[in-house]
């Protein structure tokens, strides 16, 4: 027997003084209400209502049991409300600051179709790791080396003028013999200021004979893009970013650089859909091809 449903019928019938009216208020047929009250009486071993007249009157036993039945119904309703609130609670999701807002909005819409209410929180690479570690977010996109990545974004160099060759060699950025010749810099945006991207590029620049200052980290993506638009300097970025800023993009001859992203921290049931049914939407936000990586489980959240 469904005790909650039976108590709900009992409370409705007693409140309206009629099986017909009580059943209508409870949204069930009169016959169902009668059977449920009868089953409750059998379960508790006593008559709850007096059926000797058209109007339903509670027996003394029924009067004693009515407060408990009401509490049980109220508690059941409260549990339903709590469950709905729990389903609707926002999942705070740390994402790269470079994700375009319109694509993040599309991700939120797609998540809602899966009954996931995302609350995106754009942040830089180190801040995303901190947010995951402190559980200030339920899940986050963290930067990882290519081998551990669920999403990968190829990087190249962008400039205000077209490149003369299909790939860029860092050696071509060395200063000429004329001291007046400007040294073109390679600017690393904050999103790529992680060891597995910054260090190989710095070492490659040194091997190519570039001056130490020719590979440097910019204070912001906007500042780096503005510099690339107004000077001969180059911006390390994805093809999509170059197109957004109206820059010409070209891949590097070496080293091969890719942004790697994975999910970190949080409860598995919270972030698992982000790596499965929402994989394509997350990929679009990151500017990555929608090809699943080796894993979609939680990473350690450690900065690479």
From TrEMBL:
Residue span, HTH lysR-type domain: 1-59
SUPFAM superfamilies the record matches: Winged helix' DNA-binding domain (SSF46785)
Listed GO MF terms: DNA binding; DNA-binding transcription factor activity
Highest taxon in the source lineage: Bacteria
A single Gene Ontology CC term: protein-DNA complex
Family from the record: Belongs to the LysR transcriptional regulatory family.
Assigned keywords, A-Z: DNA-binding, Transcription, Transcription regulation
PANTHER family cross-referenced by the UniProt entry: HCA OPERON TRANSCRIPTIONAL ACTIVATOR HCAR, TRANSCRIPTIONAL DUAL REGULATOR HCAR-RELATED
UniProt-recorded name of the protein: DNA-binding transcriptional regulator, LysR family
InterPro entries attached to this UniProt entry: LysR_HTH_N, WH-like_DNA-bd_sf, WH_DNA-bd_sf
Stretches assigned to coiled coil: none
